[in-house]
Amino acid sequence: MERWILYALISMLFAGFTSVIAKLGLAGISGDLGLAIRTCFVFAFVLIFAAAVVPRGELQALSITNVAWLALSAVTTTLSWVFYYKAIKLGDVSTVALIDKGSIVVAVVMAVLVLKEALTLQKLAGAALILCGLFVIARK
Q1: How far, CA to CA in Å, does 110 sit from each of 9, 81, 83, 130, 137?
Q2: Phi/psi of residue 2, nearest 5 degrees
Q3: Where are the alpha helices (DSSP H) in the chain?
Q4: What secondary structure does DSSP assign to 36-50, as a single string?
Q5: Do 83 and 99 form a contact (C-beta atoms < 8 A)?
Q6: What is the reported pTM?
Q7: What is the pLDDT of residues 9-47, one digit of tens each?
Q8: Which is nearest to 16 in space by CA: 105, 94, 76?
Q9: Residue 119 zone, left/alpha/beta (φ > 0; ψ -120 to 50; rest)
């Protein structure tokens, strides 16, 4: 198995845990406060992780373009998290998490349009199935 696939599977596992654990942490508080507290911990843990694994010379390779794209990514991540926390506070985590995974379809479309990645029949079929699943879930 290629390393990136292993990393993606580990990410999937922890992302699944995250939603349930976050819902437990929101008991009695708003999603906004819960997100703020969680983000403080994420910030600290990521800094500690980066200090441990990022080579010292890599900082010199950082360009304004890197910073600009990563800043824009931070904006979209923030908006995603804000609305995700509002959704899990009010709804069932299992349903919200499934709908949130519709982001896969958005990522596939953006990867094809912006990054010029190939749209294979396999990716198209997978995205279509996810989209169909979203309609099934969203319908009560």
Answers
A1: 22, 19, 21, 16, 23
A2: -70, 150
A3: 3-25, 31-53, 64-90, 93-100, 103-113, 121-138
A4: HHHHHHHHHHHHHHH
A5: no
A6: 0.85
A7: 999 899 989 999 999 999 999 999 999 999 999 999 999
A8: 94
A9: beta
